Amino acid sequence: MLVRHFLTLRDFSPEELDRIVSRGAELKRLQAHGHTCMPLRGKTLAMIFGLSSTRTRVAFEVGMHQLGGHAINLGPQDSQIGRGEPIEDTARVLSEMVDAVMIRTLRHDDVTAFARASTVPVINGMTARFHPCQLLADIQTYAEVRGRTIEGRTVAFVGDGYNMCNSYINAARQFRFRLKIATPETHRPEEELLAATDTADLVESPRAAVEDADLVVTDVWSSMGHDEEAQDRRNAFDGYQVTPALLDFAGKDAIFMHCLPAHRGEEVSDDLFEDPRSVVYTEAGNRLHSQKALLEFLLGEPSAGGASPTADA
Ligand code: CP
To answer: Which of 138, 176, 187, 234 has its CA 20 to 30 A from that of 169?
Structure first.
């Protein structure tokens, strides 16, 4: 049987992604009403973290627990990967023991190499190129907060053209919205991603990006792997801070998202976090529900009507 991996949003069809996002919202409602839903009883997720994490780790670990399964964490010192065991051998060994693997590491090529050797689903928990799990939560959050899907809406990405920006370019194509991107010339997203879609465009300034936008998004100027460049980056991104005043140029129902952790006072002003247009904590919480929907999609099937056979509604 063909094994499905989730390394970028383009690994799934738009219909599959819509289904996962809707299911995430449904799982959130079920959880809020105290209904257990355990289609992954007896299943194990291995989580390989080569980099730090709060949201991704907690969401996958709690998510597996709530779905009836189990997650094990393999940090940099917990496996033989740190001592040089080849990625492909690790993939083949873990495939013998667990039902899925999540990996966070800077080198996207390592995740694709792992997936090629794996006979169980592999999930990208963030690389230097893409952060697809975050996008599932963001799209779910937009629909939850605004009561309509993001299809046909306008999204502004302001800041570093790095993994979040790349994933927003893929999301614009897969979830059918228009994306306007404002980055300094020196920190543009991947050209080939932009060339492959007519739904995302570079614009000349943060103001041009946010004008009439329904959603405004940013990310830190110095992501993991860029710590040494922090001061140079602060200079390069001068003028790219997202503030309540910048958001005033957006559409009247615009909301603000940030994948977190944030560097308040750099890419986002402190006061925007407390602004009613900011939905960053709902967004963070939806990492749990959207990742549960992703796990269920890859590892187990909900019954007709959406609820799991084990839901004790
Ligand atoms: N947004 C995000 O991926 O958060 P963590 O780095 O805490 O997992």
So the answer is: 234
pTM (two decimals): 0.94
Our answer on whether the CB atom of 124 is closer than 6 Å to any ligand 1 atom is no
Dihedral angle computed from the Cα positions of residues 202, 224, 163 and 53, in that order, rounded to the nearest 10 degrees: -140
Nearest ligand 1 atom, CA 126: 3
Please confirm, yes or no, whether 174 is among the known catalytic residues: no
CA distance 273 to 268: 8
Interatomic CA distance for residues 201 and 211, integer angstroms: 14
Instruction: Tell me the pLDDT tens digit for each residue of 164-216.
Output: 999 999 999 999 999 999 999 999 999 999 999 999 999 999 999 999 999 99
Give the residue from 47, 57, 44, 60 showing the smallest Cα distance to 98.
Answer: 44
CB-ligand 1 contact for 51 (6 Å cutoff)? no
CA distance 67 to 212: 40
